[in-house]
Amino acid sequence: MSRDKAAARARAQEMHEQQARQERRREQLLRFGVAAAVLAIVVAVGVAIQAGRSGQGGGDIVVVESTAEVPASLDESGTGITLGDVSAPVTVDIWIDFSCPHCRDFEEENGETIDEIAASGDAKIVYHPASFLTDESATAANAFACSVDSGRASSFLRTAFASQGNFSADDLVAMGEDIGITDAAFASCVRDDTHGDWVAGVQDGMADAGVEGTPTIFVNGELREDLTSATPDDLWAAVEEAVPAG
User: Distances from the Cα of 177 to the Cαs of 24, 57, 180, 199, 241, in angstroms?
Assistant: First the structure.
C-alpha cells in the first residue's frame, strides 16, 4: 500500500495547513456547482455530505442537482461513483489512484469478485478516484467518470489499471473503444476533461475522509486496512460479516 509514501503524506498535510476544514468543504461544494448565494442549499448539501461520511450505508444516492458536470451514480458524499444496488445494506468504499501500482494489484486480484459483490445486492461498491500521484491520475479519473453513462464503468476501470501509465486522452478513448464504448459523447468527455472539476473535488475530499494513500477501503464507514491486500475470499467474508442480521 502507498500510505507510507512521503508524497502522499505531504499532499495530505499541505491540504490541512493551507485551508481550514470548513473552507475545504465549501470549495468542494463549489466545484460540484451547489454552493451559491442561497444559504439553505449549502446547508442541505452539507447535511448530505455529513450523512455520507457517517458510513452507515443503505441510504439512497444523493445526486446534486446543478449545472456542474458531475458523473452519474454519485454517492452521498459526492466524491464516489456507485456500482450496484444503491439500497444494498453494506457499503464498500474504495479509494484508488489510477497511477497507484498497489491499486492495480488489488484490482487484478479482486476485480471480478468486486463485480460479483455489487451484482449480489449484498453491498454497493463506491469508487473514489483520487489523483495525487501524477497528473495522468486525474486524466484517467475523468475518463472513468465519463464511462459511467455507458454502463461499463467497472470494465473501464479494470482496463485502465491494466494499461497503467498510458493515460493520454487518445489512449483512454481507445481503451473505451476496446470494451465497446464507441459513442462520440464519451470521446468528447475524455478529451474535453468534462469532469475535471469534479475530479479535483474528489482530491480535496481525500483528507476530509481520513484517507492518506491508496488503496484505502472502508466497510460501512469502518477503515479496513486488512483488506488492502485482500483475497476474494477475504472481501466476501467482510461483506457477509457486515450484512445486518435478520
Answer: 37, 34, 5, 22, 38
DSSP string, 160-226: HHHTTT--SHHHHHHHHHHTT---HHHHHHHHTTTTHHHHHHHHHHHHHTT--SSSEEEETTEE-GG
Q: Which of helix, strand or coil describes residue 153?
A: helix
Per-residue pLDDT tens digits of the chain, which is 246 residues long: 443 434 444 444 444 343 333 344 434 444 444 333 333 333 333 434 344 433 443 333 333 333 347 888 899 899 999 999 999 999 999 999 999 999 999 999 999 999 999 999 999 999 999 999 999 999 999 999 999 989 999 999 999 999 998 999 999 999 999 999 999 999 999 999 999 999 999 999 999 999 999 999 999 999 999 999 999 999 999 999 999 986
